[in-house]
Amino acid sequence: MSKYRMLPCDLPSLQTFQCNMNPPQTSSRKNSDPLSMNDFWLEVENIKQMRGSDGEESSSSEPSTPEEGEAEADWLQDTGLSPLIGDQSPTEDNVLILSTLTRTQTAAVQRRLDSYSRSLRKRSKQPTRDVRDVFNRASQTNIVLEENGTEETNGTEETNGTEDTNGFTEDTTKSLSSLDRGSGRSDVYNMEVAYSEQAALGHNENCKTAWQPDSLPNFQIQKGRLGVTRVSDLSSLDMKQVPALALIELTALCDVLELDLKRNKAAKRRSTESRLFGVSLTSLLEQDRKLMSNTQVPLILQAVLNCLEKNGLELQGILRICGSQARMKTLQQRLERNFYAGLFSWDEVNPHDAAGLLKLFLRELPSPLLTAEYLPAFTAVQKITNLKQKLQALNLLILVLPEANRNTLKALLEFLRKVASHEKRNLMSLWNIATIMAPNLFLYRGSGGRSQEGGEKQQAEGVAGLVMAMVHYQDLLWTVPTFLLSQVRKLNENSTKRFNERRLLNFLRKINLDKERPEKHHSEPCKQVKIRASVFVKDSLAIQLNKGTRAADVLRKFQEHVNHRSWQMVSTMGLLKCNGNFAFPNLELYEVGGNIGEHCLDPDTYLLDLYNANPNGEWVIKQSPPTTPTL
Are 436 and 294 in the same domain? Predict the structure, then answer.
């Protein structure tokens, strides 16, 4: 397997695409060509003109190139494994992470450590440790944790069981085989087994690779017994563990695909006196949460998108036609003065000017929306020829993004999908939208980079294709793969073993459950559980579980249970009475505690399987949280 290194990347810049309004490769294309890049080059020229009118080309330094070994150190820092590069023994946190890794993920960590050690030896620095010593000590510490904890193993499903001659576990091979038998189609997207393991086994080799903007293949997520988990379904504490695990898996996938995934250090941008444009997402959200505490997407961006959705979705050439630079300058100044005071009216804003403000907001961010660190990684993904594996890499990259960037990107892509859905009226196809938005996402101030002669067209088409894929497949990309959720569960589960009081409480609880547990019937597993109904009712709802009981069945039984009884506090609970029955809007079943913080369950989750995966958790019926407030 080829060596993986995180090296600096030549990011696209305005200089890269300079003066190539109609490069030779695209000059012969007609506007009717589904892959015409005319919109891309026109947008690049518009950006150049706007920046030229500001009298300043750049207000930020170029991304710095990491020194040898520095990229590996940054990678280990981001994955929570930085203590492994010192001479101390692995910490318990490091051990917990290592204990959840699959075979390919472990190999990826070993390569990073080995590369870092070689770089230190070249620079004649402190003595380095053998990478085998790190994993041997981790394994020994893991055994101690097992002896002090429960009888369960620390490995994930992929690391349990007997390995075959290729190094893959029996469980991994069986999981892939069973899913293949169940689907038998190349359009099924498997999230049960780690992407890197699938790639190493050649699982997606039969996936379609040739596609056109007007005929993108659709993929169906293969639901396992535990259903599908969206990013919004997990608590913030659980989601904080996902980026590190996703980065390790992304690295392992690129190792298997022999893709040189690159990363830059963030460029420094001079501070601005602006309150809305040229301000980091973190700073914007800090201001916004003083007004609306639950804000996840900057209010200024929400306002611009709302204006466009109200007046611009059916407008011909929306996003393509540039607004007046003079009007946009005036609008920007008025927004800076009046936006937070609530004195700005969007009713008088021309939709084309609003579209210009949207693109200006994205370009003026101190750091790109896709982040300076991972923007080269997004660019490198275009080199993956297998579409399914390309989407797997994009899925992991989105999970690696900071929360503010991920939420903002989601709001943007949802809006772009709405624009594409009105193509018959606004004449904006998905490809048109992608070619216009790509320069605003992939070109930014101070991005630097060298022009590769003859490569502009290919590079431009590649980033436009990525934007198109993110818009079209966004529902898939904002899903937490089942194998990553299993690793989060294992991390949470193993971390509790360090606390004697928790172990004692769980042990006593287990004894109590064993006393109350009915006699097992192996032919038809069955379990009675009590489900709490949050603030709706004081008592619990007893549910008899069997192999076929799903979360949707429990919600239906709860509705029947409430309608069967008379509740005196109904009027104070905000319930709606419909045809003599009480309707509970937006009810969801949540998994709380045990080896998870809080998890909103897919209606198709089989609860007996979930109970076996998290026997110490409890289930609560409650209303789903409100969506992010908008202006």
Answer: yes
Domains of the chain: total: 2
DSSP string, 448-513: -----TT-HHHHHHHHHHHHHHHHHTHHHHTEE-HHHHHHHHHHHHHHGGG-HHHHHHHHHHHHHH
**Which residue type sits at 501?**
E
- Residue 439 sits in a domain of what CATH number? 1.10.555.10
Confidence of residue 240 (pLDDT cuts 50, 70, 90): very high
Nearest alpha carbon to residue 589 among 567, 608, 605: 605
Report pLDDT for 98. 83
Residue predicted with more confidence, 216 or 439: 439
Q: 298 lies in a domain?
A: yes
What digits encode the pLDDT tens for the residues 92-145? Answer: 667 778 888 999 999 999 888 888 888 877 765 555 555 555 555 555 444 333
H-run or E-run covering 102: none
Q: 220-221 and 188-189: which strand pairing? A: parallel
Interstrand relation of 479-480 and 229-230 (parallel, antiparallel or unpaired): antiparallel
- Asked if residue 543 is part of any domain, the answer here is yes
* CA atoms 547, 553, 555, 559: torsion sign: negative
- For the chain, how far is it from start to end, CA to CA, in angstroms? 52
* Structural domain includes residue 469: yes
What is the structure's pLDDT at 229? 96
Query: What CATH number does residue 551 fall under?
Result: 3.10.20.90
Give the per-residue pLDDT at 313. 96
* pTM for this model (two decimals): 0.82
